[in-house]
Structure formats: structure tokens, C-alpha cells
Specification:
glycosidase, disordered C terminus, 184 residues, alpha/beta, Uracil-DNA_glycosylase-like, single chain, Uracil-DNA Glycosylase, subunit E, 32% helix, 3-stranded antiparallel β-sheet, DNA-deoxyinosine glycosylase
Length: 184
């Protein structure tokens, strides 16, 4: 297997971030285009457009702007790894270098929830990030959600929308008052 050393994308987060969506590691198309969820069959943008109320057919920079304005940031748990292709299963075990998520999470006072986009992201979060979080940040809800990847073809967009619906309270206007363990 010809694994390549891959470097992930920078975090797309602003100071108003209430929901942080974490993938595992960007796929090949996303890395080539330097854009999150760039594969044309990935359902992330249609899903977030439906949840946040923006047109997912807009240009990437506009979609990203709308996402950030909705209080949603994106990054990945893994910042560097060796992998052949795009599948999480092809990541070479032991080559993973996690992103600096504990520092990012601590620097987002309005953060109310973390959403892991897929099982691999959730497992990587539990492995590298959770143990390094201080108690207040560790009390944030972490939702392990089904992947929007085209490899998760059994999940239709309506089914994904229903599964991701628990994020909705934090996406509403005035969502700073949404439930959180951090605010208790």
C-alpha cells in the first residue's frame, strides 16, 4: 500500500462558534481543493444548508461564511497522517497526529456542543482529545453523528437531517441560551 503523508486543512472557526463539527481527516478531493467537504457526493453542505438556512449551492466561500455566521465551525481531529485514498479505514495506524483541539476548545467561550461527523471522528476524539480537556470543556456535549461521506451511502439526506437535528437548538438565533453543561 502506497500511503502518503497528508496534512489536513486549517480550522474554520470564529469567536462566535457554538457548534464545532469535527471530521476525522479530509478526503483526497477536499485536500486537493483545500476546501472542507469538497467531494460532490458528500452531503455535509446540503445538510448544513438545511439545518442553518442557507443555499448549499453557493460558492464555497459564501457557504463557509454562512456556516460561520450560523455559529458553526469545522475542523478535523487528525491533523496529519499517512493514508492511501480517502477512506478512514486506510489511515495507517500510528501515523496520526491530532490537531490542537484542546487549546481551540478552551478558546471558544460560546461553544455549546461538539459534533463528530462519523464514527472515525468520534473514536479519534475519544482517543486524543477527551483525555486532554480540562473539566469545564470536558463537560460539553459531544455528539457522535452519522458520517455525511458518500461512503456512508446507506444514510439518505433526510435520514442524516433527522440524525443531526439535535444540533438545531444551538443553531437558532439566540442559541447562546441553549442547554450546556458549561453554562451550569
Amino acid at each position: 500500500m502506497d500511503e502518503q503523508l497528508l496534512q489536513g486543512l486549517p480550522a474554520q472557526v470564529n469567536a462566535d462558534c457554538r457548534v464545532l463539527v469535527l471530521g476525522s481527516m479530509p478526503g483526497a478531493v477536499s485536500l486537493q481543493q483545500a476546501r472542507y467537504y469538497a467531494h460532490p457526493r458528500n452531503r455535509f453542505w446540503p445538510l448544513m444548508g438545511a439545518l442553518c438556512g442557507f443555499d448549499p449551492a453557493q460558492e464555497y466561500t459564501q457557504r463557509l461564511h454562512c456556516l460561520l455566521q450560523s455559529g458553526v465551525g469545522v475542523w478535523d481531529v487528525i491533523g496529519q497522517c499517512r493514508r492511501s485514498g480517502s477512506l478512514d479505514a486506510a489511515i495507517e495506524r500510528g501515523s496520526e497526529v491530532p490537531n490542537a483541539l484542546p487549546a481551540l476548545i478552551q478558546g471558544l467561550p460560546g461553544l455549546r456542543a461538539i459534533a463528530c461527523n462519523g464514527g472515525a471522528a468520534a473514536a479519534a476524539f475519544r482517543r486524543w482529545v477527551s483525555p486532554a480537556l480540562p473539566p469545564l470543556a470536558a463537560a460539553l456535549p459531544v455528539l457522535a453523528l452519522p458520517s455525511t461521506s458518500p461512503a456512508n451511502a446507506a444514510w439518505t439526506l433526510p435520514r442524516l437531517r433527522a440524525a443531526w437535528a439535535p444540533l438545531q437548538p444551538w443553531l437558532e438565533t439566540g442559541a447562546q441560551a441553549a442547554p450546556t453543561a458549561r453554562g451550569r
